[in-house]
Design goal:
This protein has a single domain (about 25-195), classed as TIM Barrel (Alpha-Beta Barrel). The chain is about 40% helix and about 15% strand. The protein has helices at about 5-10, 35-45, 65-70, 90-110, 125-130, 155-160, 175-190; strands spanning about 25-30, 50-55, 75, 115, 135, 140-145, 170-175, 195. Strands 1, 2, 3, 6, 7 and 8 form a six-stranded parallel β-sheet that branches. α3 (about 65-70) links the parallel β2 and β3 (about 75). α6 packs parallel to α7 (about 175-190). The two termini are about 20 Å apart. The structure holds zinc ion.
Length: about 200
Amino acid sequence: MYDLKDTRWIKNIYQVRPAALGQVILTFDDGPGRHLNDILDILNAENIQAIFFWQSKLLYKGRPWRRVLNEGHHIGSHACNHKNLVRLTKGQQFGQIKYSIDKIESITGTKVQHFRPPYGQYNEDTMSILDELNLTPIMWEITSYDWSNKHTPEKIVENVVEHVKDGSIILLHELEQTAKALPQIIEGIREKGFEFTNKL
Ligand SMILES: [Zn+2]
């Protein structure tokens, strides 16, 4: 059972487990979208595996989910349509989470293990549902603010590289400016001596 007051557990959803020292995780929210292939090209060229948190309403059979899985990335759920879960009843939250998992699993044939709540907002009901459905909640430690830097990808690089720490889980989105910033983000993180993982 996830206990919101248990700080050991809470720490683990913001950072890679202590077993993976020297490693960080790139996460991409709000897809699958039209910049996914560009992001995959960069990650593939750099041999980096990431976690994608998808809104199930955007997942059609024609999306390149096969490529995502073949290249070693994980697909997690970001619920159905980006509703703020804390404003919903427990039953509605259950619907948002369960339906999204079922849809991703039925299309990809692969078990979903990770969940990231829209806006990073969750409560006791959310955690009890995730526990029941055997899903691990994943938050983030480093915010790239990529959504508010459409014309300034260099700011996105700075927001990540200047703040990244051992074990950081990094929040990015499937946006054009994020794809532009990504090569330098990767380079900057490697220069600081960290490597990439998507194992939790
Ligand atoms: Zn989101």
